[in-house]
Amino acid sequence: MSDETVVAIKGLTKRFGEKTVVDAVDLEVRRGEIVGFLGPNGSGKTTTIRMICGLLRPDAGEGTALGFDIRTQSERIKREVGYMTQRFSFYEDLTIRENLDFVARLYALPDRRRAVDATLDRLGLKTRQNQLAGALSGGWKQRLALAASIMHAPKVLLLDEPTAGVDPLARREFWDEIHALAEDGLTVLVSTHYMDEAERCHRIVYIAYGRIVARGTVGEVIAQSGLSTYVVTGREVAAVARAVRGAPGVAQVALFGSALHVVGTDDGLLGAAVDAAAEGRDVTTARGETSLEDVFIRLMDVARADDPSNRPEAAA
Amino acid sequence: MSAAHARRTAADFVSASRIAALMVKEMIQMRRDRLTFAMIIGVPILQLVLFGYAINMDPKRLPTLVVAADNGPVVRTVLAGMQASGYFDVRVGLATEREVEAAMAAGTVTYAITFPPGFERDFVRGDRPQLLVEADATDPAATSNALGALQPILESAFRPELVGPLAARAPSALPVDLVVQRRYNPEGITSHNIVPGLLGTILTMTTILMTALALTRERERGTLENLMAMPATPLEIMIGKVVPYIGLGFVQVAVILVCARLLFAVPMAGSFPLLLAATLLFIAANVTLGYTFSTVARTQMQAMQMTFFWFLPSILLSGFMFPFRGMPVWAQWVGEVFPLTHYLRIVRAIMLKGSGLADLAPQIWPLAAFWLAVGTLALLRYRRTLD
Ligand SMILES: Nc1ncnc2c1ncn2[C@@H]1O[C@H](COP(=O)(O)OP(=O)(O)O)[C@@H](O)[C@H]1O
Ligand SMILES: [Mg+2]
């Protein structure tokens, strides 16, 4: 990782009709970094990524990718960037090899055969090279898409929910591959909503309702949230859950197996509420670690309350 | 930003490698799409055979109404000859002109033959009496053969009658004044006229439709986003999409021309290379139009509808369906817009009349202008972004 900024956008805004889908987003990605782009469905991740690679025109804001202006030099950007779309978008009636061959020709790669062979080898696609893409399972399709987006040796990789609908083993292998690529100097911006994937990123950016509401390393984001967590265990956790829900200082109550996580912003109030609910019941309470998921749920709640379109008067 | 970044080279706009990528991909997809491919080959053959044999099919025993004022030996001989030829199913009746008119309009008779009063007498006198044959030519292909047979029938019918003093007239013209009226279709399109017409209409339908679907299919399947994220320019995408369909069009041309030759012996009076060159221009104009449709349409369904909206007036106003000169003037002006109109004239002129390039220039430049116009429109319409 270096200090060289590869993607830099400022105040990026996109409206569809009346709706502001991406609202003044700032984002910086440095060389060799893996940045996780997180947020609930419809929060504007895909739209932001599409603006970076020139597929959508921003309504406001500016940005560069690899030093090229995203508004005027998208043709240049396209050559140096690999983009893996959210939905599988290679040709299902072409084989793996034919798809890669197509991409290699489009990028005018020298020694096309070798480039395709090397890519097939690298992603373990050799034995399936003559299968039609449409006949592949989700994990293999994703591998083909990754192969196709890295074949022209891009400097930046934009991955839009690359592991949606892929089994855990394939996901893990995928992430190992991403890390290997980053070690070779590739810069990666990857959108996801899997928490475990967020933890494999060097840095995360959290977007909700088109606005970035948190950014930093996983530890930083948890710390910034100012949330405290208590874990309640024992026979009567269900009763405790009912009692604390809605109490002052309590933001989230969630059961994980037999453990109850109670999360709040004000440590003092939260402690008092948990103690009051546990009073006289067969449970033990302890301070716990706040998880990234707790933070994200909190961020979503706050963002929803802030979003003008979700206010009651706006709805009326 | 360095100067190298700002400078653009020719390869930024058109790259052979990128066009090849798109063309190869399109051709593989075409080959895998068996059903469509079978249609491309099958439809022209089917249409040719259907239309073609409707033309050459020699309809026999066509209902024929005879209006005869007198019923002498000459009239009887003529009628017997007609009946014997097999083409006419002669029903002698004492019909009036009004009844003939009504039967024709209702389509219950195909021919009406009128022997005027005094026919027998005039014939014997050698006055070449009129013999009026009215034919329902709404389906000219069906009636023309029978009409063609009429002359020899009459000749052989009259020959035995011409004995004695009348024999002197034998080598001369027919002893009657045969008046043939092709009703409803003054131009009397012939079989050789229709096969070239089919060439134009089949090409119009398939080439426009195939290309109109080409880009909308990518949009519907989501592959367009990927394509747009890769470094292909709108011009390259257009060329890469359109050229394979030009090739496909020529496969159809080959099928149609071979069939036209083998099955119907359609002549080739003019230059074959000229025909191919004109066909290339015509197909190019059509596939480019199809491509323009696909830049406008959001879905394959819309692309298909647009194709049909274009196809219908094309066949109606181009002179394929109705004689061009028979249309109202405004319709003729509209008809001039369609490539099919010009192509039909070109093909008929080359194949049947043997016309050369100079004769055809007035039909060629409208095709070229049309092509340029839709090509420009397609490039302007092409969306570089997903907005
Ligand atoms: N082409 C479009 N036209 C109109 N609305 C759109 C379009 N694309 C996305 N949206 C809307 O913009 C919002 C953000 O979408 P998206 O960027 O796909 O979110 P995410 O990728 O985070 O799930 C959604 O509400 C979506 O419905
Ligand atoms: Mg998305």
UniProtKB/TrEMBL annotation, chain A:
Using the record's annotation, list all stretches that form the ABC transporter domain. 7-234
Matches recorded under CDD domains? ABC_DR_subfamily_A
Q: Do you know which SUPFAM superfamilies this protein is assigned to?
A: P-loop containing nucleoside triphosphate hydrolases (SSF52540)
UniProt keyword list? ATP-binding, Nucleotide-binding
GO terms (molecular function) for this protein are: ATP binding; ATP hydrolysis activity
Q: Which InterPro entries match?
A: AAA+_ATPase, ABC_transporter-like_ATP-bd, ABC_transporter-like_CS, P-loop_NTPase
Q: Record's superkingdom?
A: Bacteria
What Pfam family is a match, any one?
ABC_tran
Q: Which family does it belong to?
A: Belongs to the ABC transporter superfamily.
Q: What is this protein called?
A: ABC-2 type transport system ATP-binding protein
Source organism (scientific name): Prosthecomicrobium pneumaticum
TrEMBL record, chain B:
Domain named ABC transmembrane type-2 is located at 156-385
Q: Which UniProt keywords apply?
A: Cell membrane, Membrane, Transmembrane, Transmembrane helix, Transport
Subcellular locations according to the entry: Cell membrane
Residue intervals passing through the bilayer: 35-55, 194-215, 242-266, 272-294, 306-324, 364-382
CC per GO annotation: plasma membrane
Which GO molecular-function terms appear in the entry? Answer: ABC-type transporter activity
Which Pfam families does the annotation name? ABC2_membrane_3
Instruction: Identify the InterPro entries for this entry.
Output: ABC-2_transporter_component, ABC2_TM, ABC2_TM_bact-type
Cleaved signal peptide residues: none
Membrane topology of this protein: Multi-pass membrane protein
Q: Does the keyword Cell membrane apply?
A: yes
Q: What does the sequence similarity comment in the record state about its family?
A: Belongs to the ABC-2 integral membrane protein family.
Protein name as it appears in the record = ABC-2 type transport system permease protein
